[in-house]
Design brief:
mainly alpha, extended
Length: about 80
């Protein structure tokens, strides 16, 4: 039989899912795939709209710039 204290310990030991860091683009990509599954016509535009509402236009623009910089570095390494 499981009592409260052992149940609490099991919950505390279970690994928590960590979200990807903000500005890495992983959250945006996950959201676009989720929206695409739901039938969105343009999931990237919808994800950008949601992000602008959540974080504001300035922060969303800063994250977009960071993502573009990271993508540019990746392209340079490949070639």
């Amino acid at each position: 039989m499981i009592n409260r204290s052992s149940a609490r310990q099991q919950i505390m030991k279970s690994p928590k899912k960590r979200k990807p860091t903000l500005g890495s683009g992983a959250r945006f990509k996950a959201l676009t795939t989720q929206l695409k599954k739901r039938g969105a016509k343009n999931p990237k535009a919808l994800a950008a709209f949601i992000g602008r509402n959540k974080y504001g236009p300035k922060k969303m623009a800063a994250m977009a710039q960071k993502g573009k910089r990271i993508a540019k570095k990746r392209r340079k390494r490949r070639s």
